[in-house]
Design a protein that fits this description.
A hairpin with a 5-residue loop joins strand 2 and strand 3. The strands form two sheets. Strands 1-4 form a two-stranded antiparallel sheet. It has a two-stranded antiparallel ribbon with strand order 2-3. It is 48% helix and 11% strand. The chain is mostly helical.
Length: 112
């Protein structure tokens, strides 16, 4: 996994469950993040989670890219970061998540 996952130059405080259902808009138009599962890690882990269940508007990803450009290999790391969430959903909600889990594991197996 060392050839895929990289240590961040500076670890980030992560939301831990950052998907569109955990973002609401306040009366003043500000974004509010709710229902965190906070931990410290690579900022890409939260970004990956935003792409797992429907994603955010394109403007969100463009703004992220301006502030913190993605390093090469993000697409593979995204899948590794999201594997945890998919396994968790497989355990909690059932077999509908199994095909995606198998797909990611198959892709990782081919990398070895």
């Amino acid at each position: 996994m060392d050839e895929i996952l990289v240590e961040p130059a500076c670890p980030s405080l992560l939301h831990g469950d950052l998907w569109s259902g955990n973002v609401i808009t306040g009366d003043d138009g500000s974004a509010w993040l709710i229902d965190p599962a906070v931990y410290v890690g690579h900022a890409e882990a939260d970004l990956a989670m935003t792409e797992l269940f429907g994603g955010f508007p394109r403007t969100f990803y463009d703004a992220y890219q301006e502030v913190s450009p993605l390093q090469p290999g993000y697409e593979q790391r995204r899948d590794v970061y999201n594997l945890y969430h998919l396994l968790n959903h497989l355990n909690l909600f059932g077999r509908m998540y199994l095909p995606e889990v198998k797909h990611i594991i198959g892709q990782l197996h081919r990398i070895k």
